[in-house]
Write a structure and sequence with these properties.
The complex is a heterodimer of chains A (about 600) and B (about 250). Chain A has 14 helices and 30 strands. Chain A is of the alpha+beta class. Chain A is globular, with a radius of gyration of 28 Å. Chain B starts with about 30 loop residues before the first strand and ends with a helix. The chains are: A alpha+beta (about 600), B mainly alpha (about 250). The complex binds adenosine-5'-diphosphate and magnesium ion.
């Protein structure tokens, strides 16, 4: 069995990790960064993902997709309030959102698959082996459609998704493994787009989730938005410029707002500077300003915390340890509020950006059969039920039930000779059907018999991924019934198949984009390194040589902006030849220095 | 939302632990069945002694036997938890990820059964309701409708609540506040009733547990048990009414 990696597919950032004898490790990219921004850009040469796509965001916002996780498993109606914050076009087909960039249309799982592929590639390069199996994390409060969409994304990316695991529980695995903690812990996870709270009991290697709650529409993005609104207003007032009409400027403001928020985690005041077509907009922000603007958002996280505690049958002060996860928990205001609620200093010794991916890797190791002393017992976050008379939902499985779990329901007929019953599956906590999430509908076939005689037992099973499966059986004959379930907001199997095929095709197109980026990065690295070397080597090489090196650097700088990676590569090779002597000279000098300093220190001793 | 194609072959079913017709609960020393995989004899073990494949839990298995607990209403919760963790380590799908489809399916079914059992036995009320259902085969006329007086009361309260809900959106008024006070008083009364019911349930639970020492075949014992079961059921269903009412009141009037 090949190695299974753990993936944190975040709204803002994604990471991939693996586990070996020493424990879980996050896999860095060539630049040493472990986080891959969850951003995908369409260039004329194909798709780019991660850090390069982030740069693309300002240049070409209408062809850059960010925060795609917000659309997973959703219909257009679910996100209509947020549409104004996105610079790309959306529409809906078969209940599933589709994203238009350029002349192409993608479903959210396809876009997520692009990010997953980038992570897969990263892992393969680092581990020097094929990676085809993964554990992927989702917010604990994700519903069935959102989980299924995540699984589809894995499939499209060519990954067998062995398990969908909840982000806070993944974090608890990494945390518990590292700290050898026992007792009751609360994991508070505030990322870029979602909020989760999970209460767990840790005992002898068992991680039992007692309750979970959250908000899949609350995260750092919302904090940024508050600052954006103020600055957009300010720009309109001071410069008379309406940013709302200019997507690229809007992105600039958004990114600056985020930087301001991040800086205010360490500093008490900072200045926002936004370059505008004619002039500059500047605003000084204090931490107090920002806290006042976002206090209600932090407070919105507290109600789910209280509900989770209540469902777990606990008081806040019974919690032994509180662990903070997700980038936005670096905000001092979040710290204070969480500390206030639990009456306890929260922990954050583990890197809040990496802990979820690390935990996913631990779970991957459990599934691989290597780690055998740890076991995660998770719960389903939302109640599951069916529509009954009068548009009321009748719950079959309650929220916070340990999974896997199943429930049975018997169906019969009301009319003589009736041959089918329509069943509508729902998820949520509200009384009325219309206030809950419609997961799927299916029709049950019944034999034409007098009313009340047919008996078909329908079984609902939530598996360890938190995903629902439905089976049915005719009780009188004992025969299995096939049920054709139509998901309300999901891709059909055929669609997923088609997307898997497409993704192979795109792959060849995207190689071109990747090759350019890689060549460009390399050219940049060479320019920076050589310029540094020239400074150090002023007295070691003659003017003529310096001159020719400068010339080649300048050429490389021009060539690297082109769109043909072969031309860049050729120039890189030329530059390397030209700087060969310089490198040798510097190496000699360094060696001599090292030897001399050794002598020097010897004498001093 | 996924869909398991219902297996048409003789593969074990996903939903329910399959069992051989001869299997009885583990408490019966004579219980015998065959391993679904290698056909060697298994006597209530979870894993086949020959091929070490996981065995489906018997369909006849009740939660008390599954957790190796006597049918008592006051149980050792520590032991319950410990058994739950142990059995989870045996059955959880996480440990069957590399196994074949049949074993995965059995592990899933067993785990689902185990989780449901734990949830029910952990909670004293659900535990009692479950025990009554188990024993109910022998007991006639277990009533589940509330007595007339409670029913009347609930109806009246529902009306007041409805009025409150209609008034509330129009802002505070003396009428609304008076009604709020009244409903809050009612709630306190109901909460007290609920506490009393729980106390008398506790009492009956103890009585039940003591009866378990009596010779089970004696018709006298049987009669006593039946009376107790009926009594418990009555309090339990009344309690459900009262509790739902309290929840409703809390939600509406705060
Ligand atoms: N130092 C910081 N202070 C405040 N917020 C931060 C800081 N660092 C990152 N963030 C915010 O954290 C969010 C991303 O968190 P992350 O856990 O990576 O998200 P996700 O899990 O959604 O991908 C962003 O909104 C980012 O602005
Ligand atoms: Mg996250």
């Amino acid at each position: 069995m090949g190695r299974i990696v753990g993936i944190d597919l975040g709204t803002t950032n994604s990471l991939v990790a693996f586990m070996d004898q020493e424990g879980p490790h996050v896999i860095p990219g060539p630049d040493g960064q472990t986080k891959v921004p969850s951003i995908v850009g369409l260039t004329d040469n194909g798709l780019i993902v991660g850090e390069p796509a982030k740069a693309h965001l300002i240049r070409d916002p209408s062809r850059t997709i960010y925060s795609v996780k917000r659309f997973m498993g959703k219909g257009l109606d679910d996100v209509k309030d947020e549409l104004k914050y996105f610079s790309y076009q959306l529409h809906e087909k078969n209940g599933v959102i589709r994203i238009e960039i350029g002349d192409k249309t993608y479903s959210p799982p396809q876009v997520s698959a692009m990010i997953l592929k980038e992570l897969k590639r990263r892992a393969e390069e680092f581990l020097k082996e094929d990676v085809s199996k993964a554990v992927i994390t989702v917010p604990a409060y994700f519903n069935d459609s959102q989980r299924q969409a995540t699984k589809d994304a894995g499939l499209i990316a060519g990954l067998e998704v062995l398990r969908i695991i909840n982000e806070p529980t993944a974090a608890s695995l990494a945390y518990g493994l590292q700290k050898k903690t026992q007792g009751l812990i609360a994991i508070y996870d505030l990322g870029g787009g979602t909020f989760d709270i999970s209460i767990l009991k840790l005992k002898d290697g068992i991680f039992e989730v007692l309750a979970t709650n959250g908000d899949t529409h609350l995260g750092g993005d919302d904090f940024d938005q508050r600052l954006v609104d103020v600055m957009v207003d300010g720009i309109l007032k001071t410069q008379g410029l309406d940013i709302g009409k200019s997507p690229d400027l809007m992105q600039t403001v958004r990114l600056e707002a985020e930087r301001v928020k991040v800086r205010l985690s360490d500093e008490t005041h900072t200045k926002a500077v936004i370059e505008l077509p004619d002039g500059k907009y500047e605003k000084t922000w204090t931490r107090e300003d920002m806290e006042a603007l976002t206090m209600d958002l932090v407070e919105r996280t507290l109600a789910p915390c209280r509900s989770a505690l209540k469902d777990a049958g606990l008081h806040a002060n019974q919690i032994d340890e509180v662990v903070l996860v997700g980038g936005n928990t670096r905000m001092p205001l979040v710290w204070r509020k969480v500390e206030e609620l639990f009456d306890k200093k929260p922990h954050s010794e583990l890197n809040p950006d990496e802990v979820v991916a690390l935990g996913a890797a631990v779970q991957a190791d459990i599934l691989g059969g290597h780690t055998t002393d740890l076991l995660l017992l998770d719960v389903t976050p939302l109640s599951l039920g069916i529509e009954t008379m009068g548009g009321v939902m009748s719950a079959l499985i309650r929220r916070n039930t340990t999974i896997p779990t199943s429930a049975k329901e018997m169906f019969t007929t009301y009319v003589d000779g009736q041959t089918s019953v329509d069943i509508h599956i729902l998820q949520g906590e509200r009384e009325l059907v219309k206030d809950n999430r419609s997961l799927a509908r299916f029709q049950l076939k019944l034999p034409p018999l007098p009313a009340g005689v047919p008996r078909v037992e329908v079984n609902f099973l939530i598996d360890a991924n938190g995903i629902l499966h439905v089976t049915a059986r005719d009780i009188r004959t004992g025969e299995a019934q096939s049920v054709q379930v139509k998901p309300s907001h999901g891709l059909t199997d055929d669609e997923v198949e088609g997307m898997i095929r497409d993704s192979f095709q795109f792959a060849t197109e995207d190689i071109k984009a990747r090759q350019i980026i890689e060549a460009r990065n390399e050219a940049n690295a060479i320019i920076v390194a050589t310029e540094k070397a020239l400074v150090r080597a002023t007295n070691l090489i003659n003017d003529k040589e310096t001159e020719s090196i400068r010339r080649i650097l300048q050429q490389l700088g021009e060539v690297k902006e082109g769109e043909d990676h072969r031309v860049i590569r050729a120039k890189i090779a030329e530059a390397e030849k030209t700087t060969h002597h310089l490198a040798e000279v510097l190496m000699d000098a360094t060696l001599k220095e090292a030897l001399e300093s050794k002598k020097l220190s010897d004498i001093i001793k | 939302m996924g869909l398991f194609p219902v297996p048409e072959s003789s593969e074990p079913e996903i939903m329910e632990p399959q069992y051989q017709a001869t299997t009885k609960s583990r408490e019966l020393p004579m219980a015998r069945s065959m391993c679904w995989h290698c056909q060697s004899e298994v006597t209530g073990e979870y894993l086949c002694g020959q091929c070490v494949k996981v065995q489906p839990l018997s369909k006849d298995l009740d939660y008390f036997s599954c957790f190796q607990l006597p049918r008592l209403l006051n149980i050792d919760e520590q032991q319950l938890e410990q058994t739950f963790y142990e059995l989870s380590r045996t059955f959880h799908p996480d440990f069957y990820s590399t196994k074949d489809e049949s074993e995965k399916a059995i592990s899933l079914g067993n785990s689902a059964f185990l989780n449901t059992g734990y949830r029910i036995l952990k909670d004293p009320i659900q535990r009692a309701e479950y025990l009554i259902r188990l024993e109910a085969g022998a007991v006639k006329d277990i009533r589940s409708n509330p007595p007339a007086d409670l029913f009347e009361e609930v109806l009246e309260l529902q009306e007041d609540l409805e009025t409150f809900r209609q008034l509330a959106p129009n802002g505070t008024s003396s009428e609304l506040e008076a009604l709020r006070t009244k409903l809050q008083d009612e709630r306190e009364g109901l909460e007290k009733r609920q506490a009393e019911m729980e106390k008398s349930l506790q009492h009956k639970f103890r009585e039940w547990d003591q009866l378990q020492g009596d010779p089970p075949d004696l018709s006298q014992t049987r009669e006593k048990k039946n009376t107790l079961l009926r009594g418990m059921q009555e309090i339990l269903s009344n309690r459900t009414y009262v509790r739902n009412m309290v929840d409703d009141l809390l939600e509406t009037t705060g």
